[in-house]
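Summary for the lay section of the report: proteins are chains of building blocks that fold into shapes. Here we show the chain for MarR family transcriptional regulator and then a coded description of the shape we predicted for it.
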Amino acid sequence: MADTQLDDALIRQLHVTVRAFTKGVNEVMKPLGLYSSEWAVLNFVANHDSFPQSDIAAALEIEGAAISKTLSKMEQKGLIVRTSSQDKREKRISLTEKGRELYPLAAQAAGNHRSAVLAGLSRDDRQQMLSFIQSMLDRIHGD
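The coded shape description reads as follows.
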């Protein structure tokens, strides 16, 4: 296989794998009333309480419009609350009691899915994959 074909196959496989993983997360989160994008935010906020909305978007690499839409849905579900910070333009995101109660159930579902997907990969395999993917991301970001 020529390098161009190999590179195309690699990028296509990464894309397909991420989409399949996300679909699986959506399936395990469905009984909890969540989507994968909401799980990502719930997980982040559970570990970084009262965090600025813009910083959540940056950390998760989500565009402003997409994070606003996800947060609005989560707010409607009663999972998060947005409060103004000293800078009135900035909103800080915190979990509500309902969000804190849902988090361990969602974390368990996500953990089970992740374990099933990564089953059979050694710790060294996972570390090497992480290193490769991080290296790719660093080049995308120009680091």
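Put simply, here is one thing we learned. The chain has a mean pLDDT of 93.
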